[in-house]
Amino acid sequence: MVNKATRATDTLIGHDTWNIQLDKNGQLKHFLTIEGLSTELLTSILDTAESFANINEQSVKKVPLLRGKTIANLFFEASTRTRNTFELAAKRLSADVLNVNISTSATSKGETLMDTLQNLQAMQCDMFVVRHNASGAAHYIANRVAPGISVINAGDGSHSHPTQGMLDMFTIRRNKGADFGSLRVAIVGDVLHSRVARSQIHALNILNTGNVRVIAPKTLLPTGIEDMGVEVFNNMEEGIRDADVIIMLRLQKERMQGALLPSEQEFYQMYGLTEKRLSLAKDDAIVMHPGPINRGVEIESSVADGPQSVILDQVTYGISVRMAVMSMALGREAGTSEVEK
Amino acid sequence: MSQLLIKNGLLLDPASELNHKADLYIENGHIVAIDKAPENFSAEQTIDAQDLTVIPGIVDLCARLREPGLENKATIYSETIAAAMSGITTLCCPPDTDPVIDEPAVVELINHKAANAAHSNVLMLGALTTGLKGELLSEMQALQIAGCVGLSNARLPIENTLVLKRAYAYAANCGLTVFIEPDDHWLSAGGCAHDGTIASRLGLKGIPVSAETVALARALEIVAETGVKAHFGRLSSAASVAMIRRAKDDGLNITADVSAHQLHLNELDISSFNSTCHVLPPLRNQRDQEALQRGVADGTLDAICSDHQPHNPDAKEAPFASTEPGISALTTLLPLATRLADQGIIDIETIVRAITSAPASILGMNTGSLSIGASADICIVNRNTNWQLDESNIYSAGKNSPFIGWNFQTRAEHTVIGGVLIHSHQD
C-alpha cells in the first residue's frame, strides 16, 4: 500500500524490506537482502558462522540444532555450488532437506509460482531456500508464505544474494580482521547484472568499510551506482591500486550478444585480473570470486590458483555462513545460544 | 421534452469563464440557460447542488476498456458504468484491442456495445498502421467515416521512419490528429522501472528517459515536416516537458497529456517491489514528477488522463517484472487531479480545464463546457467530503490501484450524460 506516510521522500529504501525480514524482537526471520540490516546483526551472523566453522573442521560435522525441521530448497534457476552448500549446511544442522528442481517440473506445466508454493507449504516445510531469476521473487514469496515459514533468498534476478554477500564478508574478516574501516575493497566486472555485487556493496557499507570501489566498463554499470556508496572506476589499473581485497565477478558469455561488450578478449585485455595488474594492489591483497570462474576471461589461471587467491575458502565458508543464517532464522528462541556453548 | 434543473451549484468552467453560483437549465440533452429559467421551463427533475461544484463532464483521453479481446479483465459495459460513476462522461480508447481497431467492423462493434451499455460516451482512435505492426498504412479514411476521432499506433513501434512519415502525412491528408505515446522500443525493451537509483538497487531492468525523448524528438521532426496535428500522451519525464514546451514555442500544432498517477507517484513507490506501481512509461524520479506538475500548471501539458488499465488479480500476482503494467484508474482521475489543487500545487481552474475542455478540444468535440447550447454532459462534484479508496469503491472490474488506502476530499456526486442523470452517489 502506498500512502503519504510511507512514500514521503525521506523514507529510506529498504525500510519495508527491513520490516519484513525481522520478527517483533528484531531477530532474523527471513533473509532476503542485506540492505537495511544493522551492523550488529551482520556481525552476529559472522560470529555465529565462526562458531560453526569450528564444527565444520571436526571429524563429526553435525549438530542437532534443527532436528525435526524440514527445509525445502526451491531452485527455479540452475545452481550447483549454492544449492550444494545450502544442502550441506541444512544437513549438518540435522534438518531434513527437500530438493525441488522447479525449472524442470511444476512451472513448466503452467503452474504459477504461488500454486507451487502452496503445494510445498502443504507439505509442512519450515523454511524455503529460494533461487529465482526474477528480482524481488524472494520478497514476493516471503510476503505470502504462512507465518511460521522462513524464507532465505539464494539469489533473485539481479537484486540480491545475501548469503553470498555474507560469506564474502566472512572471508574478508578471516583474512583481514574485523576492522573493515581500514580496508580498500575493489569489485571488478559485470556489476550491472550481479546480485552478488549488490549484496557485497550493502554489506561492506554496513560494516563501515573504508573504501568500496567498483571497476567496470560503462556498459556493465547500473545507473546511479554511486548512490549505493561506491567509488566508480572505468580503468582497472587506477581502480585496483592499493586495494586490500579484489573481488572478481563472473562474466556471463551471453553479454556479448546484447552489444554490451565487443569480445571476451577485449574484456580480458582491459579488466582481466592478471599477475601484472595484481601487483598494483597491496602486497598482501586477497583475490576473491563467487564462482564459477572463467579462466582467461576475467582472471588469469595463475592468479586464480595463486597464493593470494581465497576462492576455494569462500566455498568452504559458505557452509558455515549458511548454517548460521538457517539456525538464526529457525532457532530464534533457543538456537544461537546453544551454538555458543 | 425532458427538462432537468441543477440548482444552487457553484458553476466552475474555465473554458466559459464561469466561476459563480447559479442554476443550470437543461433541455433535450443541451444546456439551454444559466441563472434565469427560460420560458415554459418546468423541470421534471431537479438536482440540488447546494455546497457542490458543477463542472463539465470529465473527458478521459486514454482508457483501456479491455473489450474486445481481454473480457476476462473488464468489458465495455463494466468500464463505461465505472466511468459514469467516476464523473467521466466521455472516454477515448486506444486501438490496441484484439482485434486491433484497424477496420470499420471493430469500430462498429465497440460503438454497438457502448450504446447498449448506455453510460459514458466511448470514442476511439483508429490504428495508424494495419494491425499496429508499423508496416502498412491503415485505411484511415474508412476509419474516420466509421467514427474514429484520431489515429494512433498505441505504444507499439513504427521502426521504419519512412513509414512513420508517410503515416503522419496521410493522417494530415485526412485531417486526423495522430496520438503518439513516444517510446523507443529498443531502449525500453524488457524494462519495467525508471533507469535510476531505485531500479539499480532492486536489480530491475531500467527504462531510460531517452526511450521517451528519442522517440519524441523523432516524432516532433516528422510532425513539423508533415504538418500533421499531433497529440503526445502519457509523458513521464522533465526532459519531455521541456521538449514539448520548446516545440509549442516554435509554433508547432501539438498538444500533450500526462496520466494522473505520474503527478502523484515516483520511483520511490516501487521500492518494496509494489507491483501496483508497475506502469509504462515507468514512474520516474521526484524531479520528473515535479516537472510534470509544473507542465500542467503552465499549460505545456494540456490534459490529465487516467491511462486506465484494469487487470484481473492474477496479472499483478508475480515478482515485479513479471506482472502486467497498468493501473485501474477511472475512479481516481477526478480525486487525484483535484488533490493537486487542494495541495496548492496547481490552481483548480487549470485542473478542471485539463480534465474537461482541453481533452474535449483535443478530441475535436464541442462538449467539455457549460456554455449555452453545449451538450449536457455534466459532473457535479463534492469537494469537501472525506473518503478512502478501497476495492469496494473502485467501480471498475479491475481493482489494481496503488492508491488503495489513500484518503480523498473530492468525489463525483452526480453524473449527467446527454441531459440525463445517469448516476448519483449513494452513501
Per-chain topology:
The complex is a heterodimer of chains A (341) and B (427).
Chain A: H1 15-21, H2 39-56, E1 70-75, H3 81-92, E2 96-101, H4 113-122, E3 127-132, H5 137-142, E4 150-156, H6 162-176, E5 184-188, H7 195-206, E6 211-215, E7 231-233, H8 236-240, E8 245-248, H9 264-271, H10 275-278, E9 286-288, H11 301-304, H12 311-330, H13 335-340
Parallel strand pairs in A: 1-2, 1-3, 3-4, 5-6, 5-8, 6-7, 8-9
Helix pairs in contact in A: 2-6, 2-12, 3-12, 6-7, 6-12
Chain B: E1 3-13, E2 18-27, E3 30-34, E4 45-48, E5 53-56, E6 58-60, H1 76-85, E7 88-93, H2 104-117, E8 121-127, H3 140-146, E9 150-152, H4 161-174, E10 177-180, H5 185-188, E11 193-194, H6 197-202, E12 206-207, H7 210-226, E13 230-232, H8 238-249, E14 254-259, H9 286-297, E15 303-305, H10 330-342, H11 348-355, H12 357-362, E16 378-382, E17 387-388, E18 407-408, E19 411-417, E20 420-424
Parallel strand pairs in B: 1-4, 1-5, 6-7, 7-8, 8-9, 9-10, 10-13, 11-12, 13-14, 14-15
Antiparallel strand pairs in B: 1-2, 2-3, 5-16, 16-19, 17-18, 19-20
Helix pairs in contact in B: 1-2, 2-3, 4-7, 7-8, 8-9, 10-11
Quick rundown:
The complex is a heterodimer of chains A (341) and B (427). Chain A has 341 residues and is α/β, with parallel strands linked by helices. Chain A has helices at 15-21, 39-56, 81-92, 113-122, 137-142, 162-176, 195-206, 236-240, 264-271, 275-278, 301-304, 311-330, 335-340; strands spanning 70-75, 96-101, 127-132, 150-156, 184-188, 211-215, 231-233, 245-248, 286-288.
Walk me through what this model shows.
- The complex is a heterodimer of chains A (341) and B (427).
- Chain A has 341 residues and is an alpha/beta fold.
- Chain A is 37% helix and 13% strand.
- In chain A, β1, α3 and β2 form a beta-alpha-beta unit.
- The longest helix of chain A is centred in the last third of the chain and has 20 residues.
- In chain A, 48% of the residues are buried.
- Chain B has two domains: 102 residues, Urease, subunit C, domain 1 (Roll); 307 residues, Metal-dependent hydrolases (TIM Barrel), CATH 3.20.20.
- In chain B, the strands form four sheets. In chain B, strands 1, 2, 3, 4, 5, 16, 19 and 20 form an eight-stranded mixed β-sheet that branches. In chain B, strands 6-7-8-9-10-13-14-15 form an eight-stranded parallel β-sheet.
- In chain B, β7, α2 and β8 form a beta-alpha-beta unit.
- Chain B is globular and about 65 Å long.
- The interface between A and B is medium-sized, with 35 and 35 residues.
